[in-house]
Amino acid sequence: MQNLEERPVYVIGHRHPDTDSICAAITYANLKNEITDGNYKACRAGDLNEETRYVLRKFGVEEPLYIEDVRPQVHDMEIREIDGVGKGESLKTAWKLMTDANVVTLPVTEGDELTGLITMDDIVDSYMDTYDANILSLAKTSYQNIVETLDGKMVVGDIDAQVERGKILIAAGSPELMEHYIQQDDIVILGNRYEMQLCAIEMNAGGIIVCEGADIASTIQKQAENHGCKIISTPHDTFTVARLINQSLPISYFMRSRKLVTFHLDDFTEDVQAVMAKERHRYFPVLDESERFAGMISRRNFLGAQKKQVILVDHNEKSQAVKGLESADILEIIDHHRLGTVETMGPVFFRNQPLGSTSTIIYKMYMENQVKIDKTTAGLLLAAIISDTLLYRSPTCTEEDKKAGKMLSEIAGIDDEAFALEIFRAGSNLSSKTPGEIIRQDFKRFSVNDLTVGIGQINSMDAEELKELEKRVEPVLQGELENAKNLDMIFLLFTNILKESSEVLFAGNNAEEVLEDAFGNKRAEDGSICLDGVVSRKKQFLPALVEALQQR
Q: Are the CB atoms for 166 and 188 separated by under 8 Å?
């Protein structure tokens, strides 16, 4: 689990990020890292448009981290980091590791790869339910395990060998009697009786275990070498050896290796809980994105699962926000739009100003905190202000936006008008995009009464380019509406920045009537309507649309 000071705070814009949303996230995360001891990360909740990609490439800035959903994930929980055990290790070793670590499940690994699980129940079952005298050979038990389990030493033979054949038996009778029981390759548990040791060797036993630390004559050792019989010496008595020897069995013989229930670090906790509820296990292994073992979790770990911490920029409506926002901890909202529907569990820092760009607010916050703005930051903030105010032509633009833009252009060493031409050309160069991608280029959802309305906007300085894009999009607009989830109407503005006007395509029940009601002196022709002087979705188009919908 990450320490509190290491936990990231995600600074993130809306689902259809524009240049202001992305640049605001990047620059505000940098500001917060500069003035606090926190760990702030700029993120995005959707794909970047061509305009924004151009801006980031121009200033050599990486795209923010993509986050689709901010619900708590496994990596937000306290993961028990526990070393895996090799499948050849003994049950006794596994039991000791479990008791020392106070766990009931142990991961079996090869390197970083999870190969199985062994539980205390598995070990108890092996101890209580095993009656087969051939169990050592069936499990291919190593002599290393036997020696370690019996606290003994290898007197004769290769300690790295395995028990391949034979059964376990105790030499409790006379040599004459035992000759009828000892077979080739058996493992014989016996005491210090010379004749019994010799009998076992001559009957070609695979090995003998001499109890109570009894001396082993050199002649016995020599005979054992000649017959290929291994000798193990242990300080324990015969009863203890008989009781302990099954604990030398390798984990591989009892571990679970098929149909393991595992989780990944990026799995959502609510999905994990649903799976856990159906399983009787107490601990579950966690794998990373490369399928490497990362640790263990149990049901009680959910008690400490921490919500993701987020700061919203350039929006405050739930319909526009990243998925899973209701499960996150919202710390701040920095925005310049109307107040929406985001609800928070507690009070948050909320800065909302009627300016043309969120990046103008962030510029002011740099000034207020006396943090120096470097050329890259200035370039990003300038690009966002130019984009959102249409180079100061939008009615949303204020004197503060213009002042900020001029200051930032000086810091960045950029001519704002020439830069604006670059930005808008990059943003309207959609020749390689599908009609659906063009529609979603800069698209936002708004809730009005019981209706959900989608409004997209394409800005350009080239009238011919806008007309060509309209022709490509118009035939598919109704289909896009039908395929969209919970969307009642759709409007798409093709805004000519130089002429300061917008051609609007529309689809949906009553969309035409609503549009005509909103702009009463205009009538739709051939599926579109031309709105002179309308360039702002936020300040001109949306308010008129909302009023018309409310009146209806």
A: no
Q: Are 188 and 200 in contact (CB under 8 A)?
A: yes
CA angle 94, 290, 294 (to 5 degrees): 35
Reported for 298-305, long-range contacts at CB under 8 A and 24+ positions apart, including other chains, are 298/80, 299/273, 301/77, 301/78, 301/79, 301/80, 302/77, 302/269, 302/273, 304/1, 304/77, 304/78, 305/72, 305/76, 305/77, 305/78, 305/269
pLDDT digits (tens, 9 = 90+) for 489-523: 999 999 998 888 999 999 998 898 999 899 886 66
What is the model's pLDDT at position 278?
A: 84
Q: Give the CA dihedral 509, 513, 516, 520, nearest 10 degrees.
A: -150
Question: Which domains does the chain show, CATH number per domain?
Answer: 4-72+308-427 (3.90.1640.10), 75-126+253-304 (3.10.580.10), 142-248 (3.40.1390.20), 435-551 (3.10.310.20)
pTM: 0.70
* Spans of the chain, pLDDT less than 50: 1-5
Q: What is the pLDDT of residue 181?
A: 87
Find tokens 């470097």 and name the residue: 374
Rounded Cα distance, 67 and 30, in Å: 18
